[in-house]
């Protein structure tokens, strides 16, 4: 259920965020000279595939939408196991102790968030890399065919094996892991505080 809900939530925002993502990628990686962001946007719309070109890489989202779904599924499933073990190991009957056993500590939530984000990032990174290459138009396929996500992944693998497919994963993990860990830690503590204020714990 968590995987399905996560995928649906990720797909819901794509009509708006994917063109913005494509525009940002072009600004950061394209040969734009001295053109400003608005000039780059107008050039993207007037050249090539127009508006359809703003949705380059959408194929990858059939897999990339699993990234947040995997992250939250791993977090919630492991969280349930940890909380169950807490209750069994402490065997407390006082309300205060029971409340503490119904939530993760800040350090536990942070570390679990890091693990969950790492797993989800590693699982989909080749698709993420291929999407960025397609949006920046840096990838080509053998025979001059129009590039697509599967073709780019196969070309990356043929050129450098798994190392090529996962090139650049270090910065992505560094950025994503800490941001996700902080977000999930805050979410866990805020959720517990809200439930406590409403008398649910």
Describe the structure.
This protein has helices spanning 2-12, 14-29, 37-46, 61-64, 66-90, 95-101, 106-136, 149-165, 169-197. It has 201 residues and is an all-alpha fold. The longest helix has 31 residues, at 106-136. The radius of gyration is 21 Å and the shape is elongated. The two termini are 25 Å apart.
Taking all residues together, what is the mean pLDDT? 79
Shape: elongated
Low-confidence stretches: none
Q: Please report the total strand number as a whole number.
A: 0
Round the Cα radius of gyration to an integer and report it: 21 Å
Brief summary:
The protein has 201 residues and is mostly helical. Helices cover 75% and strands 0% of the residues. It has 9 helices and no strands.
SSE layout:
Elements (H helix, E strand, L loop, with lengths): L1 H11 L1 H16 L7 H10 L14 H4 L1 H25 L4 H7 L4 H31 L12 H17 L3 H29 L4
